[in-house]
Design a protein that fits this description.
The chain has one helix spanning about 95-100; strands at about 1-5, 10-15, 20-30, 35-45, 50-55, 60, 65-75, 80-85, 90-95, 110-115, 120-125, 130-135, 150-155, 160-165, 170-175, 180-185. It is mostly beta strands and about 190 residues long. A hairpin with a 2-residue loop joins β7 and β8 (about 80-85).
Length: about 190
């Protein structure tokens, strides 16, 4: 069981037999009355986000979830296939279970698969991935103002904002949590 003083972003809890992950936690101490935590939690099964309020000192059950590192093999018909490199066991996740994170996953990449009672429910790519730029407009000559960006497409099909000096064929490091360009990677 978790007490309210242990609440933090990323905590996995179970409510009414369903696993949730804490997306946001706000501790509130009103001038009058008991302190409480206002939390936003996201269902690991269907992705719905709900808000809950817990009085200070309340307890919430831990979710029976575990993470397992697996390798992404391929995507076929909206199902993403992953393999455990130790047992060679394969599992499939629907595109809606992965959500927007699918645009950062490429073949051969190792990802963390979240298992709830032995069943795969979601996946998380590494925080930083290196992808190749497959398309971007050439830089405009004379446009040297600071922080000039342009839209670029990476090898997974996602579009990101990159600095003007980035060209097709460059490899860039991207933060998958925010979808933002970090830096150019030497070839």
């Amino acid at each position: 069981m978790y007490e309210t003083n242990e609440f933090r972003k990323g905590l996995r809890i179970e409510i009414d037999g369903h696993p949730y992950i804490m997306v946001e936690n706000q501790f509130v101490k009103p001038g009058k009355g008991q302190a409480f935590n206002r939390v936003k939690i996201k269902s690991l099964l269907n992705g719905n986000v709900i808000e809950r309020t817990y009085k200070s000192g309340e307890k919430v059950a831990k979710a029976d979830v575990s993470d397992q590192t697996m390798q992404f093999l391929y995507e076929e018909g909206g199902i993403y296939h992953f393999m455990d490199e130790k047992t060679f066991e394969q599992i499939g996740l629907q595109k809606d279970q992965i959500g927007d994170l699918a645009k950062w996953i490429q073949e051969g990449m190792k990802v963390d698969i979240c298992l709830y009672q032995g069943e795969a429910v979601s996946c998380a790519p590494p925080n930083f991935v290196t992808l190749e730029i497959t398309y971007c407009e050439p830089a405009v000559r004379g446009d040297t103002a600071t922080n000039v960006t342009k839209e670029a497409t990476v090898s997974t099909g996602a579009t990101i904002q990159v600095p003007a000096f980035i060209q097709e064929g460059d490899k860039v490091r991207i933060d998958t949590r925010t979808g933002s360009y970090m830096d150019r990677v030497n070839k």
